[in-house]
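Protein in question kept in full:
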Amino acid sequence: MASAVEQFAANINFQAFGKATELKNRLWFTLGALIVYRLGTYIPVPGIDPSVMKDIFQQNAGGILGMFNMLAGGALQRMTIFALNIMPYITSSIIVQLLTTVSPHLEQLKKEGEVGRKKLNQYTRYGTVFLAAIQAYGISVGLEGMIGSAGSAVSDPGLFFRFTTVITLVGGTMFLLWLGEQITQRGVGNGISLIIFAGIVAGLPNALAGTLELGRTGALSTFFIMFVLVMVVAVVAVVVFMERAQRRIVVHYPKRQVGAKMFGGESSHLPLKLNTAGVIPPIFASSILLMPITVASFSAGQGPEWLQIITGYLAHGEPLYMLIYASAIIFFCFFYTAIVFNPEDTADNLRKYGGIIPGIRPGKNTAKYLDDVLTRLTMIGSLYLTGVCLLPEILIARNALPFYFGGTSLLICVTVTMDTVAQIQSHLIAHQYEGLIKKAKLKGRRG
């Protein structure tokens, strides 16, 4: 741990940080935007009884609502204007990425560079509005049927309540999308990822306090709580190591003569990450498996018998749940990796620029070689994701720990932190280069 801290301090020049005015302004803007987001998670949707909603949520927190509430920073539990968070945008972006593999028009847009990317982003926004409207309407209808111990969750149900709820929730999602884009452009880090990160981190103190309270009451032993804390540190260390791991494939560029000069003759690396899919597989797998539990909890035991049987087998910690969960993570790892990385396109680009992998012929042989390497890497990465997600899942199921100690939340927190720190380092390096260039110009004028 000490060496990691020393390495972090060495990577960030704090003296240069104090002089980087632009970076400080970007950090202040990012902090202000995240504060605005957190304030919005406490503004309730009109017509909702917060006390009844809290009571209903506590009864159904074990299903998909618990995980989505964690990703929304508690906004779903309080049923606020940001209850949907930016999940519709994430779903829409994944759908658009899937469509690029089957639609020739979208595939062509993907290859057109900046213009095509803007068009795809526009389609993604349209899909976000559509999905958010559907989810908001479903939530409004579901809220009208929710009844807690203190009465109904909606004070005045009807068409007007549904209309206002849809407008409020869709507007909240689109505002968060705009806020995330502003953070990306004018702040530090990826805005969408930082919004999810802020929501998870905001809930960690309450989750930790709840766990310590269980220890105080005797529900959890002190030894077990210490074990959980050590396990969290160990999982974070494993995630950092595995997310940084990559296979570097050597690529040679032959020499080319242009006029009287020689160009090329250099070697570079094609980096392939061990975990190309990121946190998408655990999120998808959890959503699919927790859906029957949520539906059964809403039906309050009055649903069909087969649904109750499936819910029992898919409860947290059950062998069938663990088996399907692990299988789903592995499947989505391969599925999503196949979408985001195309070996044939990479091989064509290498051949176009004269790049050659030593010992591999250009074209189809290169594509096959890249596909084989990526398959082996994805298998290792999927097993790593499965292990990281299953161990906390067992603890959550057996000891009623919050979702915040789950593998998905830890993965998101660690990966977003690593990306943000990397961007801060790049800003500092750029600032140092600018300082050197200015000094060189001054010396040149004096000379």
About this structure: The chain has a mean pLDDT of 79. The radius of gyration is 25 Å. Residues 407-446 form the longest helix (40 residues). Residues 179 and 386 are 33 Å apart (CA to CA).
